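FORM 12-B: Structure-to-Sequence Request
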């Protein structure tokens, strides 16, 4: 009989957002008459921008004509999109070669897939709380994970501890779930730590387009030296409403290496390319044309209008927290609001309480790590009307029980 990968036995029974969805479905089944507002998974609700839709339509037309039809595309992404992304990085003052950019179906897949390149023997440093994909995928591979605590005391922005060695370091900034965002000085320290430890930073910048504070970095490559120690993952899911459309990009600079057992310096860019060519056939042409349109002036303006609208929802949520004097972070350079569960509840109990009493779905902090046990995440991605209604119910519920 085939032998099973025992590492899977170390995983929680279901993926965080599947567990949330399961509980919400069970509630809906029992209470079909109740209205439920979802501020749980960070799924967008605004439709794609006009420029993006037009690009998709015209690419679909091309696919329907013998002269312009395309079959397999380059696994790394079409040049037109790679150069559009390259230009986008120039706006942050970051120079990349187009062949350092790999188009993907999203940051979730690539933050997991990148683990293919690294030996099981690496020590992985992961902040707690954080997006659960990093922990789950490294657990599937049986790697040793060490955690670094994000707490209210350090504003959920843990800093490197020089007495601890790590080989791989995950950073998500602006952070999912806390919404906290590292400044340049803090990222400088992480880059220095990675360089001192010969480590690789796996930097998830999926929420960079929500950064409005001009002093904050959008990309880790704004920090000198990061080009030789950091891989960056980004996505159009939240930037331009691509959660269902699927398109992201991963930057693997040519200067980053990892050591083979026989002492050779392996170039990660080459190895990632090798991995992608074997396991990935690229993002559909129509979607890549849509993604290219996001980076046009008009496409960017449409994307900005979307993020601005979500940030208005974030303000409605943060204002509610202020009003109720609940300790929270996020909601400024991030679409997530992370708050301490009221009444000293743990986060799964608060999840059930909020769903049952107010018909509002959030995400329990415990799903992002033990430091989230008494914290809770709400997203700003629902409609204005639903967000306002959810906060009205939230205030009523808390006042009635306060
Ligand atoms: C979240 O809610 O944390 C995100 O939507 C998950 C994701 O992007 O995969």
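FORM 12-B RESPONSE
SEQUENCE OUT:
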């Amino acid at each position: 009989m085939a032998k099973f990968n025992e590492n899977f036995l170390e995983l929680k029974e279901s993926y965080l957002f599947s567990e949330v969805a399961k509980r919400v479905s069970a509630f809906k089944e029992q209470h079909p008459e109740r209205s439920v507002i979802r501020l749980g998974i960070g799924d967008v609700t605004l439709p794609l921008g006009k420029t993006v839709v037009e690009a998709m339509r015209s690419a679909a037309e091309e696919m329907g004509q013998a002269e312009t039809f395309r079959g397999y595309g380059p696994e790394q992404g079409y040049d037109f999109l790679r150069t559009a992304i390259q230009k986008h990085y120039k706006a942050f003052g970051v120079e990349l070669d187009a062949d350092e950019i790999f188009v993907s179906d999203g940051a979730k897949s690539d933050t997991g897939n990148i683990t293919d390149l690294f030996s099981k023997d690496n020590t992985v440093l992961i902040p707690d709380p954080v997006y659960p994909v990093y922990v789950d995928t490294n657990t599937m591979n049986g790697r040793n994970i060490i955690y670094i605590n994000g707490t209210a005391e350090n504003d959920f922005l843990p800093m490197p501890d020089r007495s601890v060695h790590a080989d791989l370091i995950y950073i998500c900034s602006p952070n999912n779930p806390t919404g906290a965002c590292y400044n340049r000085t803090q990222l400088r320290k992480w880059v220095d730590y990675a360089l001192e430890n010969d480590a690789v930073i796996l930097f998830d910048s999926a929420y960079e387009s929500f950064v409005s504070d001009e002093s904050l970095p959008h990309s880790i490559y704004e920090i000198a030296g990061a080009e030789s120690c950091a891989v960056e993952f980004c996505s159009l899911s939240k930037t331009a409403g691509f959660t269902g459309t699927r398109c992201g990009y991963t930057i693997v600079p040519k200067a980053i290496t990892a050591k083979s057992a026989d002492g050779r310096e392996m170039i990660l860019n080459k190895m990632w390319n090798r991995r992608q060519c074997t396991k990935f056939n690229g993002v559909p042409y129509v979607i890549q044309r849509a993604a290219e349109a996001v980076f046009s002036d008009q496409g960017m303006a449409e994307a900005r209008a979307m993020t601005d609208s979500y940030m208005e929802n974030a303000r409605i949520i943060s204002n509610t927290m202020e009003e109720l004097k609940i300790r929270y972070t996020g909601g400024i350079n991030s679409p997530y609001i992370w708050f301490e569960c009221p009444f000293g509840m743990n986060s799964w109990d608060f999840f059930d309480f909020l769903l049952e009493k107010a018909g509002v779905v959030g995400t329990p902090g415990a799903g992002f790590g033990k430091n989230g046990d008494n914290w809770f995440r709400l997203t700003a991605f629902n409609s204005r009307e639903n967000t306002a209604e959810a906060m009205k119910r939230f205030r009523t519920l808390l006042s009635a029980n306060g």
